[in-house]
Write a structure and sequence with these properties.
The complex is a heterotrimer of chains A (268), B (250) and C (260). With 250 residues, chain B is mainly α. Helices cover 75% and strands 0% of the residues of chain B. Chain B has helices at residues 5-19, 31-44, 48-78, 80-93, 102-109, 113-137, 141-149, 157-191, 197-206, 210-236. Chain B starts with a helix and ends in a 14-residue tail after the last helix. In chain B, 42% of the residues are buried. In chain C, 80% of the residues lie in helices and 0% in strands. Classes of the chains: A alpha/beta (268), B mainly alpha (250), C mainly alpha (260). The structure holds adenosine-5'-triphosphate and magnesium ion (MG).
Amino acid sequence: MGIKAEGVSKLYETAGKRRQVLAVDGIDLEVDEGEFVALVGPSGCGKSTFLYMVGGFISPSSGRILVDGRAVTAPGTDRGIVFQEFALFPWKTVLDNVMYGLQEKGLRRKEAEATARRYLEMTNLQAFERVYPKELSGGMKQRVAIARTLAYDPKVLLMDEPFGALDAQTRVIMQDELLRVWQGTQKTVLFVTHSVEEAIHLADRVVIFTARPGRIKEIVPVDLPRPRSREVELFDRRYAELTSRIWRAVEEEVKKSMELRAATGVAP
Amino acid sequence: MPRFLSIALVFALWEALPRAGILPAETFPPFSTVVATTSQLFLTGEMWPHLFSSMYRWAVAFVISLAFGIPAGIAMARLSAVRNFLDPILTATYPVPKAALIPIIMLWLGAGDLSKILVIILGTSIPLVISAFHGAQGVEKKLVWSALAMGTDRRLALFKVILPAALPDILSGVRMALSVSLIALLGSEMIARQSGLGYLLFSSLDVKAYDLSYATMLVIAIMGFAFDWGFVALMGRSLVWMEREEGSDG
Amino acid sequence: MAKKLLARLGALFWRYYSVFLVLIVWELVSRFGVVRPFLLPAFSTVVGRTWELFLHEDLLFHTSTTLFRMFAGLSAAVVVGVPLGIWMARFRPARDFFEPLIGLTFPIPKVGIYPAIIILLGMAHASKISWVFIDSFFPIVMATYHGAQHVDTRLIWSARGMGTSEGKILRKVILPATLPSILTGLRLGIIVALIVVFLSEMIAGGDGLGWIMMHAARLFHSVDMFVAIVLISVLGFIIDRLFLIARRQLLRWHAEADLG
Ligand SMILES: Nc1ncnc2c1ncn2[C@@H]1O[C@H](COP(=O)(O)OP(=O)(O)OP(=O)(O)O)[C@@H](O)[C@H]1O
Ligand SMILES: [Mg+2]
């Protein structure tokens, strides 16, 4: 399932149209089936907003988004999302959270349970399946959210800083697990991150957003061979060049967005 | 300090002060006397019809309030037309004592059960509407989105996401409604005096049958306590998932 | 200038359109005899009658009597409830003593023990004020206790670290941090006090707005019944609004200040 964005813009209107925020502006982007694309850019530049439009939760103010050739009008089980804020159901245990999508698919409880347990094992949460989300740390909640989305096996993965709350070690493990799942299932992945290293380690291409309103500043192909070993990356010259190229581009936009904030006095 | 010292102290004083003659025993009978009169009233059967007619009015009104108040609150949160209509009315009538309406409703509908039930509904549904409204409005949008992404039908999301997420607020509204319903029940019964605990309470006072008044007070106190205790026992379990609240005001 | 004012009035009208709609329907239904004016006197009739009673009868006296009782009971509830709530939160033995007591007495409908208060204190001011006090005491003490218990300990630590003396911590840290809760409890207390003062006057009459209601009901003077209900409603609304304005002033630092 490929994704295609054609001139997508989003204007947020709040408080009776008194405050308008142009979050993203004229995004053209094509993601092939089975491709892994990372989105980077300064905070508040509209990365989440773009993801929500692909998910069909909000609709573009102009332009359109096609998934598998059909225009997106509503959320669908073909596109799974991991929210930056986790959005776990607080009234369900960890296991029931992960089972939710499977049961909505029509799986019987036994089957759903078995599948859910597999993904809880993968995210190293098997000991916590009976626990409610309130008892989990931020990193654990994030892993539950990832397990919940992977478990029902959507063709497209929309991931909004999915490893942002994880410690460095867990992060590395989860990155490799994600790559394993991705390579085994040929999913299309849109992956938002603030970490340039992460983007380069995971993605086929890195899309750099400008400061708000978010436009595409540059698309950088990562033509490093897979599997990418971290040891090699450390010494590989191509890797170092890519990193500094993307770094500089993002830094430029971060500075712009800080100037913008200072000038308008509003938080992003 | 033993945990129930204060409660023991209260009952001890209630027993001792009239017995020692510090308070006049005929207008302030000791605890044991009140208990004895109360059980006497139950044994002779005098108390039962009043208890039953009160409970009947209360139960009918409370069920109707639940059936109307909670959906109305959720509708307010989800549909702006309903919100724009009801919100100002609720804001304007929130501080109005509903019990004050008792005589007017009796003027319209007579002094029978219908008026009393309506008064209880008026008082009880407002905390229910307000709490269901706040609860449903505060539901994190992304919870609904998550469910939709996983294939939940838009209409069913109301039951699968919004209702459970709003439950803590709704239940605290129910608890408040319980206490309001008792005030409205007793208030209406003592103004249109025919039967029920509110009737017994004040008609006995009028004829200076103080032992009967105190017995009724004890029954009402136990009832209020039982309601609250029953609520906590029933509902406490269904909310184990709730975050321990950090702040305290809402 | 005039145009701006007109626009603001218009916005206000649209925001509260349903309230005006109810009042207009009320007026018309009665004026055109859809229901008998005896059962529902027109809104304008009620307003006119209220004015008349203020001018020629002692409605002012009854209104002020009701307000006096309400505020007397409410002030007592604040004076007792706030310190007690804070004391319970900061001092273990106080908590152990009072918490079970409050837990036991809170769910009891206080109207159910009003006869005992009447028997002990008579039918005049004292019993009514006591009932207002008892009923509004509970929301205030419980909210204060709850709020003071949840004051962030780090606030106290940092105040101590900056050299605030133990005695001043209460006034400089705990009280301000508890204020939002206290005010939430107070708002509930105000509403309860209004209900209770009116009910007490209906039950043990003699004077006050509640008595006017019962007196008019006995004489089947329906207009005066509506005078009483409209007056208590308007008073309740005004007091609540004034309270909300005051709260906003007091809590300008608080994130939720502009919510109510
Ligand atoms: N519902 C909304 N109403 C109004 N403005 C919004 C809304 N959601 C987001 N915005 C604004 O749109 C802009 C883009 O927000 P978005 O969350 O998409 O950014 P982001 O790139 O995901 O940022 P971050 O990296 O911090 O997560 C921000 O300026 C934000 O304030
Ligand atoms: Mg974001």
